[in-house]
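Entry 14. Ran structure prediction on the chain below.
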Amino acid sequence: QVQLVVSGGGLVQPGGSLTLSCAASGLTFTDYHMSWYRQAPGKERELVASISDFGYRNYPNSVKGRFMIWRDDVKSRVYLQMSSLKPQDTAVYYCHARYTRAVYWGQGTQVTVSP
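Output, structure tokens:
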């Protein structure tokens, strides 16, 4: 049974930092392309960072230079470090794993950026 367990969300002030963690189990982690998505109220879910099985990273312009994704293949974890957070970063953040047609989602974690 595949599980993606997300932790690390919370309330942070504008300009602050937060790191999310996603612990994977039940899959061969090194095969998987890992991503973080977010969904704000009334908006569609959007990609915020991805990292391939060989470490290639990709970010949309909205977070480039502020967010960083990395993976620990020994611990089967993927992380998202978020810096210089803005109120518009407020959303539920999700971990995502993909390998060929196998796709898995973790539970969401709320990130709220507010004074």
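The chain has a mean pLDDT of 97. Will compare against last week's run tomorrow.
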